Amino acid sequence: MQYALLIYQGTTPIPTDEKAWSTLSKQEQNAIYADYESLTKTPGVSPGLPLGLPEKATTVRVQDGTTVTSDGAFLGPQGAVGGYLVFEADDLDAAIELAAKIPAARHGGAIEVRPVETYW
Question: What is the pLDDT of residue 29?
């Protein structure tokens, strides 16, 4: 079964936010890099494409037939998807185990595990 693991950064410090990133020790920064590298080498994992920062997103809605756009992520920076990967796993428990290894899960973010389903 395939599972999409949606990475919600939340308050997780990321390298592109130098001020927040600098609050982590060099050891923790290196651990985060190593964890993500290990994840991408895990059998069954297909890493997603890098996503830009939520502040650079444009949200699109259609209201009364008119396209309306707004700057930023739909749920704002704290609720925005920061990245994703797809994992071919035997079961949900295996996907949850992998999700727990994603650094955002322990640094103020969350990982949503969702089965990939085909409807057509």
Answer: 94
